[in-house]
Amino acid sequence: MPRLNQFRFYIRSLMLIHNQVNLPSTEGSQCTFIDFSNNNIISNVNYFPEARKGRCHIYSYPSRMQYYSGITNNFPGGLYTYVRVVLLLDEHPFEHEFFLRIQKSFPFMEQLSLINHKSQNRKQSSELNNDNRNLSVIQYSFLNALDIVEVHDDYIEQFLFDTKTHLQNNVLLCINYKSLKRVTHNFTRDATRINCTKINELILFEDFSRYHYLTHRNITIIGIDDDEEFQNTVKVMQIMNMSNDDLNSIF
To answer: Using one digit for the tens of pLDDT, what is the confidence trace for 42-68?
Structure first.
């Protein structure tokens, strides 16, 4: 194709790791496209030892994709103005600074899903110093759906504390009821009150018996007995009215 001046693409792969020695690397993937002189190529390879899986993203930049899934702490950054749906997951903690990077890279993000069961390290340091004043409040201007079902309680605080996050009005929140009750101190915690008033629709996983300052919102109960994180995430995204074609574009 002698007249082809520019080639836009997005390649995503999932690897199962079983005692492999020579695993692909980000540098190796990048070298594959060394002859693409007219394209800026970004590659990112991540491994999850606990899950025995690996994920690889290779794409041309700037990108026009609307979905970006499987973002870890190794996210290379950049500006993605077309992306509307984001999935974050890692076996290492996400700190406050990471979410700042995500907000800046995806300024028009509308739906965000998060999978991380590791507690934040720097949050503990802030608590010891009893000082959150140095944290920049992250504003999600276009976020209208937030899935934090498969997370450690620290990330619920990350998004519900008004000292860390500013949510817009009319947000759909998907969350585990027991976790929500725990983090909000049985729905009485002042630090979570402001952002909770921004929630227009609340989808609770597992049964619940009582709630207070969320009573005027639209609440749905989802009963799921499934330990597979991705199954829960897919179900949440289906609840968010995402089609099967959209889901196939993400996973």
So the answer is: 888 888 888 888 888 888 888 899 999
Look at residue 226 and tell me whether its pLDDT is greater than 50.
no
Q: Write out the two tokens for 66.
A: 């609307």
Sheet holding 145-151, edge to edge: 67-71, 85-89, 111-116, 145-151, 171-176, 199-205, 218-222
Tell me the per-residue pLDDT of 138-186, one tens digit each, with 9 for 90 and over: 999 999 999 999 999 999 999 999 999 999 999 999 999 899 999 999 8
Domain ranges of the chain: 1-61, 65-250
> CB-hemisphere CA count at 13 Å for 76?
18
